[in-house]
Design a protein that fits this description.
Layout lengths: L2 H21 E6 L2 E6 L2 E4 L2 E2 L6 H75 L4 H27 L2
Helix pairs in contact: 2-3
Length: 161
């Protein structure tokens, strides 16, 4: 199983566990802790829904419903925050990609300028006859390396689009 499938499975199990916890809420009333599941009220594991006074029953059920509403709101807030963080991550990633692309364009421009400058220098030296055959060979190799560098930078620009 790949990690994404494992994550989804774990997330589903955790959600189901959270739902079972939410469905059985602990409510304190008159110094006692009751558990409320749906419309039933339990005290120490015993169903006391029919035993307690109607006013107490209504108070406990009201508290339980208010608590459930509060928890649902908190859950929605958490989900919204999670979505916001995810969106921020996407924005940061896009910004990084733009920076990479701009840097690649800048590097390409610099290497093209350097090639032009070096070609002019080579042509000038060649015209004046100041290059030995060995020097000319070195210059040609240097110019060839600069052209290769330009090709690499062009590929980087294409990759970062």
């Amino acid at each position: 199983m790949n990690t994404m499938k494992k994550f989804k499975l774990l997330f589903t199990v955790l959600c189901l566990f959270a739902i079972t916890l939410v469905s059985a809420q602990k409510i304190k009333h008159d110094g006692k802790t009751y558990k409320v599941k749906k419309e039933k009220i339990f005290l120490d594991g015993t169903n006391v829904t029919d035993i307690i006074k109607k006013s107490d029953k209504n108070d406990i059920l009201d508290k339980a419903s208010k608590k459930q509403v509060k928890e649902e709101k908190e859950e929605k807030v958490k989900k919204a925050e999670k979505k916001e963080k995810k969106a921020e991550k996407k924005v940061k990633k896009a910004e990084k990609e733009v920076e990479k692309h701009e840097k690649a364009i800048s590097n390409l421009s610099k290497s093209e300028d350097k090639l032009d400058k070096e070609k002019k220098k080579f042509e000038k030296l060649k015209r004046k006859g100041k290059l030995s055959p060995d020097d000319e060979e070195k210059w040609l190799e240097k110019l060839e390396k600069l052209e290769e560098k330009i090709k690499k930078n062009k590929n980087k620009v294409k990759k970062t689009k």
